[in-house]
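Extended Data, panel c. Modelled sequence:
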Amino acid sequence: MIVTLVFYGFWIEFQAYYLGVMKNLNSPETKAYMLNKISRTYNFTELLNWTNQQLNWSDENFVRYSNPQQILDQGKGRCEEFAIVYVSACLALGYEARIVLARQFYLGPLHAFHMWAEVKWNGVWTQTDPSPTSFWNDTSRYKSWNWGPRAILVVSAFEDNRIEDVSARYR
C-alpha cells in the first residue's frame, strides 16, 4: 500500500510537469520562436534531421531544460530534449504532435525512462523518435519492453491539457 502511494504521488508530479511542458510548446510565443528558428517548411520526417542538426547528444552532466529556446541555445541534450525540440517544431509548422514518456518502475521509485514523440499522420498517431542514438532508433525496442516481471511500465502521451495512457500500444 505504501509503495502504491509513493508511486502514485510521484507520477502525479510528472503528469503536471509534462502537461506544463506541452502548454508551453503550444503557446503562441514558443510557436513564433520556433517558426523563426526553422525558417522554412519541412515535413515531419525532415524535421527529424533538422532537430539532429540543431542538437548534439550528450551523456555528460548538464543543465536540463524543458523550454525549446533554452535547449537550442545550449545545443545538447538527451532523449527528452530532442523530443521537446522536435514536438515544438512540429507544432509550430501545424502538425499534430505530442511527447510520449515511458516510465518503468520496480515496485517503487523511478528506475528508467525514455521520451520520444508521436505525430498524427493520416489520422493515426505515429511513433517518431528524434533521438540520434542507434539504441533508440531500433523500432522493435518499443514493442519489447521486457524489463522484468516485477516492472511496472507506464507509457503516456502528453498533449495540451490531455494525457493518454498508450501503454498497451507499446507492449
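The radius of gyration is 16 Å. This feature is highlighted in the accompanying rendering.
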